[in-house]
Amino acid sequence: MRAIAIQQPAASQISAGTKRIEFRTRRIAPGPLLVCADGAALCIVQVESVTGRVGAFRWHLVKPQRVRPFPTRSYGWITHVDDRLLRRVTPARRSFPYRFAVGDRAIRGEGATTPAAARARATELAVQRGVPIAILRDGLAIAIISP
């Protein structure tokens, strides 16, 4: 895979998806690109397109996907890294400290991160379903919201 070293903080911004255009003096063909910083791999991005003129190109980067860091020797221009070294990192599932239940059955896929958000969402669910909704914290009911 093609790899390039990019200075911080730009490399982290690309990895987070907040920096979508990289300015370079050279053109690159569209396709996957491994972004490295400080001697380690950070993420894989897709170079969607390249616009601009000679000496002032804009690389349009999309779909950043983090990889497990490993040492690289990328020197500011395109080098190649063995694909067998790449280990993609899957995003962690978001955990909710507050859950909801109807009677003794948990409501799957629903949750909240704050007490206020839990109360608001439980109120919505109670009105939608027409039944009381229990707010759970660590498996224990801390409140019951009626429709």
What's the quick description here?
15% of the residues lie in helices and 41% in strands. The chain is mainly beta and 147 residues long.
Structure characterization notes:
By secondary structure, this protein is mainly beta. The protein has 2 domains: 2-85, Hypothetical protein (Archaeosine Trna-guanine Transglycosylase, Chain: A, domain 4); 98-145, no CATH class. It is 15% helix and 41% strand. The chain contains 2 helices and 10 strands. A hairpin with a 2-residue loop joins strand 9 (133-137) and strand 10. It starts with a strand and ends with a strand. The model has no long low-confidence stretch (mean pLDDT 86).
What's the topology here?
Layout: E1 2-5, H1 10-16, E2 21-24, E3 31-37, E4 40-53, E5 56-66, E6 79-80, E7 98-102, E8 105-106, H2 115-129, E9 133-137, E10 140-145
Parallel strand pairs: 1-3
Antiparallel strand pairs: 1-6, 2-5, 3-4, 4-5, 7-8, 7-9, 9-10
CATH level-four homologous superfamily name of the largest domain: Hypothetical protein
C-alpha termini separation: 56 Å
What does the overall shape look like? elongated
**Share of residues in strands:** 35-45%
Q: Please identify the structural class as seen in this structure.
A: mainly beta
Please give the number of β-strands.
10
Which CATH class of the largest domain? Mainly Beta
- Tell me about the largest β-sheet: 6 strands, mixed
Q: What's the order of the H and E elements?
A: EHEEEEEEEHEE
How confident overall, as mean pLDDT? 86
Low-confidence stretches: none
Helix content: 10-25%
Domains counted in the coordinates: how many? Answer: 2
Question: Which architecture of the largest domain per CATH?
Answer: Roll
- Report the total helices: 2
**Sheet with the most strands: spatial strand order:** 2-5-4-3-1-6
Radius of gyration: 23 Å
